[in-house]
């Protein structure tokens, strides 16, 4: 990476997270040039490491783990061992950002909470990602993405009236909530530290972040006191903005909301007269039924031909393989190679960021547990004898 594709070069992050929210956040920052060192338990490995399929020949790794933990180093360290604190203290001379994902109080019990580490390094930026935050009535409660979406209100109007809330293909609260908000907050804290010299503790609640994603519908509900409902809002099925099944049981996405797009859409399906029904609230259900019946008469390929030359916000629903092979994804360089420690090459989803027209096209795949333990300790001044002793005492792995 050069300076254009690595704008976060110089940021050094200790990553105490597992699974998805924290690791995805640090993946984004590592992709942009930050140096990320994962502090992993040798006794309780990250569950993502065991998620199939496994890829690579010499040392097979989980495809998901190899992607989400790419461009990072791994130090396997038993945080419950007293000698671990000495290692963390040495690391803090070089790493000034910490991100952790334990329940509130866990890092404090281990001796690595914000207060303890800020005494060692006053300008430390310390980001905690949890389901419900560092305070509040649910702070110690277990949760997953589905629970955060449920308690945020988002799930209450995401789905179909005849079947209820729908599951999503990706983890909205984990990624859009935890990961993305953590990155934004950390970079804001970095800017603040540059101006003031002070670090601080960032409290990321995935439920808070999911609640913030209510954006438009939430703003409306606070203004008029009316809760958003399934298939009753402009963008959740309450208008003709929706997915429609084709004759070959594929789907067409129709987002033709603006008048010029709506006119082109209805002309494209052969019913320009239906434009008059768009703004009639009592016509929405029957309009959607008529659109559905019309779309059902042709195969997806036929609709693609009709709408390929019409700029009307109508696109086919592609499966992942089709999306990967599409001209759009290929030309936007969204597929990249990653190399494993053993030299195998893996295809991965690339970073979505382009800086000055450039994007990193090659990554270091997420490696095995503790792959960098010895080299990291050597860089901190530990001798070979010290490292052998730490290995023998199971402080590191």
Give structural notes.
This protein has 397 residues and is α/β, with parallel strands linked by helices. It has two domains: 12-213 and 330-392, Rossmann fold (3-Layer(aba) Sandwich); 251-316, no CATH class. Helices cover 37% and strands 16% of the residues. It is built from 16 helices and 16 strands. The radius of gyration is 25 Å and the shape is elongated. The model has no long low-confidence stretch (mean pLDDT 95).
Summarize the structure.
The protein contains 16 helices and 16 strands. It is of the alpha/beta class and 397 residues long.
Characteristic terms for this protein:
alpha/beta, 2 domains, Rossmann fold, 37% helix, 397 residues, 16% strand, three-stranded antiparallel β-sheet, six-stranded parallel β-sheet, elongated, 16 helices
**Overall 3D shape:** elongated
Please give the largest β-sheet.
Answer: 6 strands, parallel
Determine the structural class based on helices, strands and strand pairing. Answer: alpha/beta
Helix segment tally: 16
Query: Into which percent range does the helicity of residues fall?
Result: 25-40%
CATH class of the largest domain: Alpha Beta
Strands of the widest sheet, in order across it, are: 5-2-1-6-7-10
CATH topology title of the largest domain: Rossmann fold
What do the pLDDT scores average to? 95
Please indicate the count of domains.
2
Poorly predicted parts: none
Describe how the helices and strands are arranged.
Blueprint: E1 12-16, H1 21-31, E2 35-40, E3 54-55, E4 61-62, H2 63-68, E5 72-76, H3 82-91, E6 97-100, H4 106-110, H5 114-120, E7 125-130, H6 145-152, E8 159-160, E9 164-165, H7 172-196, E10 200-205, H8 206-212, H9 215-224, E11 242-245, E12 251-254, H10 259-268, H11 284-295, H12 300-307, E13 314-316, H13 320-325, H14 327-331, E14 335-339, E15 345-349, E16 362-364, H15 373-379, H16 384-392
Parallel strand pairs: 1-2, 1-6, 2-5, 6-7, 7-10, 14-16
Antiparallel strand pairs: 3-4, 8-9, 11-12, 12-13, 14-15
Helix pairs in contact: 1-7, 6-8, 7-8
